[in-house]
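pasting input
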Amino acid sequence: LPYNQGALITESNIKSEVGAIIVAAGVGTRMGGVEKIRSPLGGQPVLSRVVAVFVGCAAVNRIVIVLAESNIGWGKALVAESGWSKVTSVCPGGARRQDSVAAGLKELDGCDWVIVHDGARPLLREKLISDGLAAAQETGAAAAAVPVNDTIKLAGDDRVVEETLPRERLWVVQTPQLFRHDVITAAYREVAADVTDDAALVEQWGGRVKLYPGAYDNIKVTTQFDLALAGVLLESYEE
Amino acid sequence: LPYNQGALITESNIKSEVGAIIVAAGVGTRMGGVEKIRSPLGGQPVLSRVVAVFVGCAAVNRIVIVLAESNIGWGKALVAESGWSKVTSVCPGGARRQDSVAAGLKELDGCDWVIVHDGARPLLREKLISDGLAAAQETGAAAAAVPVNDTIKLAGDDRVVEETLPRERLWVVQTPQLFRHDVITAAYREVAADVTDDAALVEQWGGRVKLYPGAYDNIKVTTQFDLALAGVLLESYEE
């Protein structure tokens, strides 16, 4: 090859393989037994909205959906009906959220990057995915986050305040969370702690996680009220 | 007096004088210049809903409303129209929230207890006031709070995560906040730090602040979206 043609094939020019894990294996106890991911939101199930955004994102090559055992049949039918060819697996989750992510991770061997997103955050926009991939380049790990607006205090079991935390340094962390494949697989292999998000495993493993701007409307639908709120937000976009 | 009659006059039997400060002196920059406390919510201004709850609470004897200079005339007319005889002062606030509370505090000499409440939290119920007064008996200071549901991380200026905070020990603090008069006046006199709530001044002064259960719907109306949300919540109560 002539020199200038060869130079085109650099690390940054080779297309990365990006896999996404949509985690939706929770049992939805706070919705009174209603499956939040199956609940209709603006005419389609919450989960459909989420998957459609990832399907529509050019940077994403493969999608794994992790569901509760009882929802696997429903999920597979949804994928078939919707013609989502990027979805390569609909697999059962585990007891904890992190067990479900681990199950999804097994389906993404060979990927360079892994994106984890909550199946119950239906209002994300595609930009949040591409911004996240850009943010993750620096340290190999990034998470969407918004500044905390409330006063947050730390208290003991007696509920007497020990400390008012420094608000200007606090962030509410969301998903997407985006990781180099080797980083998240090492963190999952080597750290056993109970965590509330994937970034925490990477932090405990010793990785550096970069926060990037999330969105206040990227809410997690946990209760019936959240679902109503998501509906109001959705309508406000369409006005 | 016979011994048993005299014994009736104990500290706990003497009726405490309870004063409330409704802080509403913010300029509402996040509402695009709209005065959030004057905005209609279910047919009446946000501030009216707040004051009415305190007026209706038997434990509260005196109410001070602290407003921006430009709202004083409007506030005084509202008090007169509404026939709120418990409101003993409508006074101008200061540059910071804590300067406004300090201005209100000057109007409550002779009170045994002081309650501070945000004028922009219109959905509080009377029970939150009485629960708070009960909670404050132990340490002389109490604040309404709800458990944090989100993952909160602490990050530096570079937005790289330093720590995922222990969620089970974190609380989102609201108002009402309730203080023994001597405790809050000493804290305001002796502590000069910038704070986001009154409890933080008491903490820095060395006082102990007890958290008690607030309410998730006791939201602070800061943006137009919050106002719409408060409307949805209000309607849901009436269904």
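fyi Confidence is low (pLDDT under 50) at residues 1-11 of chain A.
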